[in-house]
Design goal:
Number of strands of chain A: 0
Number of helices of chain B: 8
Strand content of chain B: under 5%
Low-confidence stretches of chain A: none
Helix content of chain B: over 70%
Distance between the termini of chain A: 17 Å
Distance between the termini of chain B: 25 Å
Structural class of chain B: mainly alpha
Mean pLDDT of chain B: 91
Largest interface: A-B, 107 and 97 residues
Order of helices and strands of chain B: HHHHHHHH
Helix content of chain A: over 70%
Largest sheet of chain A: none
Oligomer: heterodimer
Mean pLDDT of chain A: 90
Number of strands of chain B: 0
Structural class of chain A: mainly alpha
Chain lengths: 191, 168
């Protein structure tokens, strides 16, 4: 599927650039995108190392097990096939709780670790397991208690009440998550 | 709010000290794993940034916006947020750039400004997350992940308009 999406994006871009006469912009983008992606990776490198290190301390000290126990009642029903003390479930709870706290940077290494653990439990090497689908879908819906980035931006641009969007954000993201989970679960059953 | 990150990090480190874990040694072990994780996702990121950059430069999104704007307006959605709705799933930095320019032109407290704020807070860079998580473990058949994730994005968009209309 990712093969088709990726090649589809590229073919669509080239065709549209030719139709709309943006070939000059396209070739500039083609030449510059290597640099911009490496810049992105360099920015991520420090963050990934730092938070992977902190995460390791959390793991070895039993901090993650504690958080896992705390969130277990909420997350267990979503991953019924995972054992409560399995590394996959611990990483998932840490990822979700980091996301809730707005620690997106810290959440990513936990998420990647969770995928690794889920992959070892998965029988089929090239196909997503039910747990993977649920977990990735949860990560594509925005779970955040306080939308700090948006509030900061709103304040910077002169909003009189930067946080007055908070209740609409909660309702919207909770509804979005619910819709995504319902679809993911019903299609998980179908197989 | 800026304090959450440092507090979280120090709580973990102090917890480690209390439990008599060799914190710095463990940190180094973890940081090394971080390099490995980055190494695993690097090709995916480069490939995805490439495709998204091409799409943005091709003018396809601008054209789609001009086509979708009248439909959005007819349905009671502010047409200023259409570009953001379309860009949000593929590019986080692109969507933020659109958000700030919307704040500049319409103001953060305008109807469009508030709807865009809610949309930005209630959705994620879907394609990026999917490609990164599945790319890191080289799983190609993602089954219904994309459909469910895009349904979430669409719901977030509709709900952002509804909630702002209801809550003012």
């Amino acid at each position: 599927m990712l093969n088709y999406i990726w090649s589809g994006l590229i073919i669509l871009s080239i065709i549209c650039a030719m139709i709309f006469g943006n070939t000059q912009e396209l070739s500039t983008a083609l030449l510059n995108s290597g640099t911009s992606s490496i810049e992105l990776l360099m920015k991520m490198a420090g963050i990934m190392c730092l938070w992977s290190g902190i995460m390791k301390i959390a793991e070895e000290s039993g901090f993650t097990s504690m958080i896992a126990k705390l969130f277990s009642p909420l997350l267990r029903p979503l991953f019924p096939r995972l054992k409560k003390d399995s590394p996959a479930f611990k990483c998932i709870t840490m990822n979700i709780s980091a996301n809730l706290l707005g620690l997106g940077n810290a959440a990513t290494p936990f998420g990647l670790k969770a995928m690794e653990h889920l992959h070892t439990l998965n029988g089929r090497r090239d196909t997503a397991s039910n747990e993977m689908v649920i977990f990735v879908v949860m990560n594509t819906a925005s779970l955040q208690l306080i939308p700090t980035t948006i509030a900061t931006l709103r304040q910077a641009y002169g909003s009189t009440d930067p946080f007055n969007i908070i209740v609409p954000v909660w309702i919207s993201s909770a509804t979005a998550l619910a819709v995504a989970l319902i679809i993911a679960f019903s299609l998980n059953l179908k197989k | 709010m800026e304090l959450i990150m440092p507090i979280f990090a120090s709580v973990v480190v102090i917890f480690g000290l209390v439990r008599r874990v060799p914190v710095f040694d463990i940190f180094l072990k973890g940081a090394k794993e971080g390099i490995q994780l980055l190494y695993n996702i690097a090709p995916t990121i480069i490939g995805l940034v490439f495709a998204v950059d091409l799409l943005k430069s091709s003018g396809a999104i601008d054209r789609l916006c001009t086509m979708a704007a009248p439909i959005a307006e007819y349905m009671g959605f502010p047409k200023e947020i259409v570009p953001m709705v379309l860009l949000r799933p593929i590019s986080g930095s692109g969507a933020t750039a659109l958000l700030t320019s919307l704040y500049e032109t319409s103001g953060p407290d305008s109807f469009a400004g508030r709807v865009a704020s809610v949309l930005a807070g209630a959705s994620e860079t879907t394609f990026y997350a999917i490609a990164m998580y599945y790319g890191s473990i080289k799983v190609e058949k993602i089954r219904h992940t994309l459909i469910a994730a895009l349904a979430a994005d669409f719901t977030a968009f509709v709900m952002s308009v509804i909630t702002i209309r209801v809550f003012g």
